[in-house]
From TrEMBL:
Pfam families to which the protein is assigned, alphabetical: MS_channel_2nd
Membrane topology summary: Multi-pass membrane protein
Principal localisation: membrane
Lineage: Bacteria, Bacillati, Cyanobacteriota, Cyanophyceae, Nostocales
Protein name, per record: Mechanosensitive ion channel MscS domain-containing protein
All residue ranges annotated as the Mechanosensitive ion channel MscS domain in the record: 99-173
Residues annotated as transmembrane: 16-37, 57-75, 81-109
Organism domain of life: Bacteria
Cell compartment(s), UniProt: Cell membrane
Cellular component aspect of the GO annotation: plasma membrane
Keywords carried by this UniProt record: Cell membrane, Membrane, Transmembrane, Transmembrane helix
PANTHER family hit by this protein: SMALL-CONDUCTANCE MECHANOSENSITIVE CHANNEL
């Protein structure tokens, strides 16, 4: 018992041990305070995006205060610990290079405008909506895979932030929250081409025309911000003739989250309008025409 007390007394006389105790106690206190703040303050905010940012800001400030506390406590002993920290730091940097890369990726994401919570992105072949950005990982609600047309499939995917330095980041909703989409309509030869073009244009204007004013404004911002052409935002119909049918292509701008729903409405309206033309327009399908058949030589023998 006496030896244990002497050992404890000896440790308490060591300045480094005292500072370690102070650092540990300070970190625990700061963690508790900021944990309470991160739970209480966001509840006072109604806007979900602002609430998310407040929670992340509180967490970042908490980590910064912890780091500052360590520096302040060890400020008079840093000279003695420089060599030790250098050796330990080199080993930690090598062992945790992916973690360090992810932290650097988080800094790049935060200040480089790669994406933000709520954006739809494509990272390494995985498409989904960003639902959280932590210091080390980005969390996506995945779209696609076995589910088509950009719909959620229910899987949550976590991707290391270091990924932004390794491969391209595709953002569907950053500066221009719309995407161009196309549908192809095969029409039989002999159909009324002018009426077909008119119907496709009219349907597109009625179904996705609501996006035009906002899309025009957003695209003008893009033109002023980037070196990019002033592309056409209004729906456009083009025609190509091939060996089988007249191929009409309808190109239009749509909200990136409404692509499948709007395509369903457009196709339904087009088919209804074609049915109302009393045969002037007919949908084409693949057909096979036998142009010429080879000659067959048939020899009959009488076996009776």
């Amino acid at each position: 018992m006496e030896n244990a007390l002497k050992t404890i007394q000896k440790l308490l006389d060591d300045a480094i041990v005292i500072k370690l105790i102070e650092v540990t106690s300070g970190i625990i206190i700061v963690a508790i305070i900021f944990r309470i703040l991160s739970q209480v303050l966001p509840r006072q905010v109604q806007d979900s995006d602002l609430r998310y940012r407040i929670r992340k800001g509180i967490t970042f400030v908490g980590y910064a205060i912890m780091a500052l506390l360590i520096v302040l406590i060890f400020s008079d002993s840093l000279g003695k610990l420089t060599v030790i920290f250098g050796v330990i730091g080199a080993g930690v940097a090598f062992a945790l290079q992916e973690v360090i890369g992810s932290f650097a990726g988080w800094v790049a994401i935060s200040f480089g405008q790669f994406y933000k919570p709520g954006d739809r992105v494509l990272l390494g072949g995985i498409m989904g909506d960003v639902i959280d950005i932590s210091i080390l990982r980005t969390t996506l609600m995945e779209c696609g895979a076995w589910v088509k047309a950009d719909l959620y499939n229910g899987r949550i995917v976590r991707i290391a932030n270091s990924f932004v330095f390794k491969e391209p980041v595709f953002n569907y909703s950053a500066d221009f929250p719309f995407v161009w989409d196309e549908i192809t309509v095969p029409v039989k030869y002999g159909s009324d081409r002018s009426l077909t073009r008119e119907i496709l244009q009219q349907v597109a204007n009625e179904v996705v025309g609501e996006y035009m004013p906002q899309a025009q404004v957003q695209w003008q911002h893009m033109v002023h911000k980037y070196l990019i052409e002033d592309a056409r935002i209004e729906p456009a119909v083009t025609l190509a003739a091939n060996d089988n049918w007249l191929e009409f292509t309808l190109r239009y701008v749509v909200d990136y989250k409404q692509r499948r729903g709007k395509k369903d409405v457009i196709f339904s309206r087009i088919l209804d309008e074609f049915d109302n033309t009393n045969g002037s327009i007919s949908i084409a399908s693949t057909t096979i025409h036998i142009v010429e058949t080879p000659a067959f030589n048939v020899k009959l023998t009488d076996n009776t």
